[in-house]
């Protein structure tokens, strides 16, 4: 039993390390592309975004696997999705919309983000991790005891 847990978490960290290495690789490619062409490749930004979200999903995978084993009906934790998921989604996709010219993207995405990004430009990656974790841990099974009508 204990060995099974050790192997499970060893598998999790191996998956996370592979994703981190992929993230490092694509970050390097994005910087090289930018220095050669002086342009932004949106594909690299989207790939990095997806890798960060997937790391968050892996972090919450243990919760989902435990819920799958439980009997009951699937439910969604709406407050968690609204109060954690939506703001995290906003910061997650803001990285893409920051580079699109126009008044909409400026007022909706860029201005609110400037306060955060002045201090730390990696803050968007953190919100991407939070978004992935929030999504996977928002699903649970509702266990209701069966009532016997007398």
The portion of residues assigned to helices is over 70%
Mean pLDDT: 87
Alpha-carbon distance between the two ends: 43 Å
As a whole number of angstroms, the C-alpha radius of gyration is 20 Å
How many beta-strand elements? 2
The topology string of helices and strands comes to HHHEHHHE
Sheet of most strands: 2 strands, antiparallel
| Number of helical segments with 4 or more residues | 6
- Name the assembly state: single chain
Overall geometry: flat
Strand order of the largest sheet: 1-2
Strand fraction equals 5-15%
The helix/strand class is mainly alpha
Poorly predicted regions are 146-150
Write structural notes for this entry.
By secondary structure, the chain is mainly α. The protein has helices at 2-37, 42-59, 61-69, 78-97, 103-119, 123-137; strands at residues 73-76, 139-142. Strands 1-2 form a two-stranded antiparallel ribbon. Helix 4 runs antiparallel to helix 6 (123-137). Mean pLDDT is 87; it is low at 146-150.
């Amino acid at each position: 039993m204990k060995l099974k847990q050790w192997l499970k978490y060893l598998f999790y960290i191996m998956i996370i390390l592979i994703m981190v290495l992929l993230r490092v690789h694509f970050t390097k490619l994005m910087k090289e592309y930018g220095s050669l062409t002086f342009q932004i490749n949106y594909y690299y930004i989207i790939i990095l975004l997806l890798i960060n979200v997937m790391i968050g999903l892996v972090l919450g995978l243990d919760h989902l696997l435990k819920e799958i084993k439980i009997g009951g009906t699937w439910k969604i934790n709406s407050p968690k999705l609204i109060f954690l998921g939506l703001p995290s989604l906003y910061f997650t996709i803001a990285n893409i919309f920051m580079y699109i010219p126009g008044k909409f993207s400026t007022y909706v995405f860029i201005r609110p983000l400037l306060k955060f990004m002045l201090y730390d430009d990696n803050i968007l990656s953190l919100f991407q991790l939070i978004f992935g974790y929030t999504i996977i841990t928002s699903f649970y099974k509702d266990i209701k005891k069966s009532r016997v009508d007398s």
